[in-house]
Fold:
Amino acid sequence: MRFAQIFPKTFDRLTRSRLTCADRIVLPSVPHAVERVGANEKGKQATKSFTDRRVASAVLLAVAFILVTPAAAHAYVGPGAGFAFLSSFLSLFLAFIYSFFAFITWPIRRIYRMLRSFKVYRRAIARRVVIVGFDGLDPDLAARFMQQGKLPNFARLRDSGTFCPLATTCPPISPVAWSSFMTGVNPGKHNIYDFINRDTESYLPLLSSARIRNPKKPGKSGKYWLRRDKPRVKLLRKGIPFWQFLGKAGIFSSVLRVPVTFPPEKFHGVLLSGMCVPDLQGSQGVFSFYSTRELSNEKPASGVYIPVRKNNGRFRSYIPGPENPLHPGEHTPLRVDFSVMPDGTADRAEFEIGGQRFKLQKGEYSDWVELEFKAALNVRVRGICRFYLKEVQPHLEVYAGPVNIDPSRPALPISHPLVYSVYLSKLLGPYATLGLAEDTWALNEGCLDEEAFLKQCYLIHEERKRMFFDALAKTPRGACVCVFDITDRVQHMFWRFIDDHHPAATAGQRGGRYGGVIEDLYRRMDELVGQILSRIGEGVLIVLSDHGFKTFERSVNLNSWLWRNGYLALKEGVWQSGEWFATVDWEHTRAYAMGLNGLYINQKGRERCGTVAQGEATRSLKAELREKLQELCDPKASRRAISRVFDSEATFRGPYRESAPDLIVGYAPGFRAGWDSVTGRVTETVFEDNCKAWSGDHCIDPLSVPGVLFSNRKLECHQPAIVDVAPSVLEWFGLKVPPHMDGKPWTLENPSSPSPLSRGERGTPGGG
Structure:
């Protein structure tokens, strides 16, 4: 579940700061690039040495390209961030000197790391561990498709190694579960409970994973704008990922697109950040839609509808970018103009943007298009986006995806080392960097149809596969970790086609053209597993998911229920609230819901207008709410909507328990927090049908949506949980498990013996 995709536009307005500073990003991690991208891989064979030289050369070329290209200033943007633009020549010069020093000392550091890692690997029972995450892969569907003979490679893992459900976190939300995956601790120790938490002063949402401190207003020297300060992005996730423990022991790791790794942390390895990387507007993803039709006056939940003008036979419009940093507070976004020349007879059109020209057929995506947003002569920022030609005649309709940060000229450090994203772009071409890259909301609003959404998902998936197999080849020892998001996104949007009773699909749609999309998705993941098995050798392979999936047929507006039952108050004469509790009377409110599963007590001494005393009064109110909510029945479905309600005091352990919601609501299968509820709206309706394309979900009782665990080795594990992964990896590499970890390590049966699949039964590579 992606919270920002439920209410992205409103959420973006609340979390996005204004552009207030000019500065250039300097490459703080350039020296580490030469050291860490491929340089720490050991091996004495000639083929391995050649690989090392090739990687080192590619990295050096990337560094040189950045340092000597007379371009432009880069920008720094975070979730809700402002920008940092141009700095002095001295900074670039110092970065070059630093990089040169790192290069000439590289052989010494390489020898030192080889000696240190040799000592470490003597204690290891596994020399390479490969972890492939399929976000949302469901154990019930996997078991059914294996039983039907449709997933031969997953079946080989099951028969020769391990297959079982994997307990998820409470609540079973992606940022929570993946944070426990990497740190081995419960949310009380890593501080992530949802996509958002609340500001106790304003009662407004805050992004839970990162925080930005705005820079000061830029100054001007002659014709150049100069920085006075720099925005700082702070990672709010606590706990230490297992790859940092590995790195301290000299074990190299490649980590790709694991959620809640933005901003990237330093460690001995390479990392490309995943979920929570913003787009160039500082949001979690805002698309643009262009049409010559007269569009509805209703504002879209995500994205912007932009008018198209016809001039000299061409249709003209623009791509909105970040707000102008030279005019902070005026909310004037930078833009890049483009034009479209339709060819109605051939259902195609020619696009021209920034000196680039390309043609698209109806129903076709463009390649990544480079965009340059200019604020002044020396103040500019680069991004990339894709266009989709939806219609040519009788009306022109064009979709432009969110403007991603350009990985070849990154506007902020989206990787560690910083140059790693550049290396990947030079090696593999441009790729999506946005944390929530698949545009689910464009499908929800009809700006993309199902076919266009699927094309987008698989374009991004192919990019992920290429970078994963590059990392796998460059990591013959150590840990290689990659998370694939497509399994989550496609199931969210296509579950209605496999649910016979879902209100978002007609009887004719169920089992029709899109009825086999989810099965095809699992087949493609099976083919990917086959390709991995053919390349992994004697390494340990773990395939897992953070949670499973269930249908989402009925919405529950908890805030409406709280209001109707006297726990939440509206101002006098008001019968509903706008977004984010706009007309709530906080001085008479005792409880409120925020996020996907959280419910908070309006507590004295904590919330600004708290009404409930701490201690016994709070405990009594929580017990009362738990009892009533667990009996809440949907009159239409004639069944309970909530399976269990968890008290955070009894559920979480650790120093960050105070950040948790007071109660976690575990919905019953078929139910979930309503669209109004998650945006802080109070209406007279508690239950309603979910008629959106977003039709499958997992933000319910954790027992109903376990993840899945596969391995090419037999694992001794009793009731395995996602929190067990980190301590297991550390133990397999011969490291002591830190006492603060909550997970329990799994035992590899016959660790000295090669996997059965490495002795010839390699799996079916497939072509997926």
In short: Residues 666 and 701 are 4 Å apart (CA to CA). The first helix runs from residue 3 to 6. Residues 552-699 form one domain. The mean pLDDT is 84.
